[in-house]
Amino acid sequence: ILNVEQSPQSLHVQEGDSTNFTCSFPSSNFYALHWYRWETAKSPEALFVMTLNGDEKKKGRISATLNTKEGYSYLYIKGSQPEDSATYLCAKYSSASKIIFGSGTRLSIRP
Amino acid sequence: DTAVSQTPKYLVTQMGNDKSIKCEQNLGHDTMYWYKQDSKKFLKIMFSYNNKELIINETVPNRFSPKSPDKAHLNLHINSLELGDSAVYFCASSPTGIEQYFGPGTRLTVT
Q1: Which residues in chain A have their CB less than 8 angstroms from residue B31's CB?
Q2: Of A12, A41, A57, B95, whose Cβ has the fewest other Cβ atoms within 10 Å?
Q3: Which of B41, B99, B103 is facing A49, going by the closest CB pair?
Q4: What is the pLDDT of residues B79-98, one digit of tens each?
């Protein structure tokens, strides 16, 4: 993997269902991985910063895991709500100034 | 209070003009960034800057230059605007070099 890739590109989920999506990145030169939540017409907001292999972070119904050896991170949303509708971005940091963003997973929650 | 602000929010200008986008942060962060969101919605880092060092993404044309009058401001100046410069430009700041706080974005349209 040469770039940061996110899958799927878009996802439609029924309210109340749980879902997850993937961020894949080059495992070399790893410094940190960052997940952002980006609502339409707003700017990206930080969700999680992850630095260590095996890291697990949780904020409310949203959690994330990190595997730096194989180069992936999962984001999980439990019991999706309409307010979870947004684009979820991940960004791999090779240093404080070398940052590559994925193209995001656009999540839509159907009421 | 707005943490990271950008002006203007929208900028429409003609090819060949020179324009600036202003960015201010009141968070006391040492590092600021400029990103370009391209037509495929990717966020790409253009510059990172702290009071010691400017790091430029080598893919950024030298028509783009950041100017920092003080620690709280990092303005983006663009010379000889081209059609391909049309995009949304985001400013961000960071206390750690990892977690970033984004501005609301400036939509630049070059006609």
Answers
A1: 96
A2: A41
A3: B99
A4: 999 999 999 999 999 987 78
